[in-house]
Description:
Layout (H helix, E strand, L loop, with lengths): L2 E7 L2 E6 L7 H20 L6 H26 L3 E6 L3 E8 L3 E8 L4 E5 L8 E6 L2 E4 L6 H16 L3
Antiparallel strand pairs: 1-2, 2-3, 3-4, 4-5, 6-7, 7-8
Helix pairs in contact: 1-2
Amino acid sequence: xxxxWTQNSDAEQELRLWPHNSLPPRGAMIVILxxxxxxxxxxxxxxxxxxxxxxxxxxxxxxxxxxxxIQTNYRARSVFEVLTLxxxxxxxxxxxxxxxxxxxxxxxxxxxxxMHTSGGPVPHYVTLVGDGRExxxxxxxxxxxxxxxxxxxxxxxxxxx
Length: 161
């Protein structure tokens, strides 16, 4: 699961959520190198020909485009969320690399999770409601992970720390 509960103290719990990382940097390097090497195979037949210089820029553009796409994906996945629960407060901080941090604080007694099985941006959309506001949590998780998160949030918010 790309989220983890930790017990900071007797009275404080912390939930940290992050997007799933299916391609680590080493794997990305292997993919890019493989695309480059397999792209060179057809060019071997063109060695010594002027056509090689006409085809080589397209291979280099393909490798560059793949590298840029993977880097953009890594930046988009650098988002994470931290929910801190103490005896009286529930505090959610959504860290986003482009837009900065967004914070939501509520009295823990009034905070409650809600699941929107349909009608949200993703199926089984999970939100926290309290203090007159409704904020999303874990939208980047898979559907099964959001269902498990909803159950965990129900249990943790119901039981005092």
